[in-house]
Amino acid sequence: MRLIMFGTGPFAVPTFEALIQSPHEVVALFTRPIADSGKRRKTAENPTRDVAIGAGLSVFDPKNVNDPESVEQLLNFKADLFVVCDYGQILSRNCLAASKLGGINLHGSLLPKYRGAAPINWAIFQGDPVTGITIIHMTSKLDGGPCLIKAETEIGPQETAEQIEPRLAKLGVGPVLQAVDILENWDGNSPIGQSQDPAQATRAPRLKKSDGKINWSRSAVEIVNQIRAFQPWPGTFTIWNNETLKQPLRIIIHQATALPEQNPSSGKVPGSVLVADGTDLIIQTGSGQISIETLQPAGKRVMPISDFLRGRSPAIDDVFQ
Length: 321
Hints:
By secondary structure, the chain is α/β, with parallel strands linked by helices. The chain has 9 helices and 13 strands. The strands form 2 sheets. Strands 3-2-1-4-5-6-7 form a 7-stranded mixed sheet. Strands 8, 9, 10, 11, 12 and 13 form a 6-stranded antiparallel sheet that branches.
């Protein structure tokens, strides 16, 4: 079959490379344009572009793939199927109609849970023990098409989004190739896949910097899940302020452990420092306590808690905000 790949980020790379090596003919890559920042482009900004160039494929990066000019360009390829993964734009009905069989999408969740741009992050944030990938036959509704294939994997208790994403990307390769085979043998009219139950749908919106702010009234387990979920971006941060500081200090927490309520908190306010003894920094939460293991003060490197406490250490009863 004649395929067009739609992808931008690293999540799409294993699938794109597998399609290039498959018996099918990949005729082009459509990808998001590189932001003009005035700086030299880094490969990591658009790894799918580099894969395409290495394979000698044409690369197109329209600002809006649904513009009439882009749709006309797609029609000219006479593609059988679009394969979409980590692209960054939603394909309209007219755009999908520019290929014979429409498009399939590799999505990083077990749909209908976590529809949207950040499914891996929000699954960890919610404390899910299992995640996976879904291949859908695309419609113009965001992540709403019928499910062709799913594959599950456990989320390790300490795994971060940064660690799980490449694992899910590799997990999706085989199912994408299977889905291409399914579409190749489809008559174009019969019902295909399993319809999603809209009542089970949950959202996974694009991350914002403000999502990383800790609400210390949440439980210790929930805050640790947040720390794991928002790596590497936006990071999970808190603000420390006391009379010894010239100004409030923003601190990104990279690793922490949730502790049970070991000692009565005596009504301590969530965010209160309970222990700061040179090797341990323990903070009260709304339920349980957190032992911070690695962190990054604003403008500084990531460091173990012992290095941080050798500097300007928080005092007992300081309140992180």
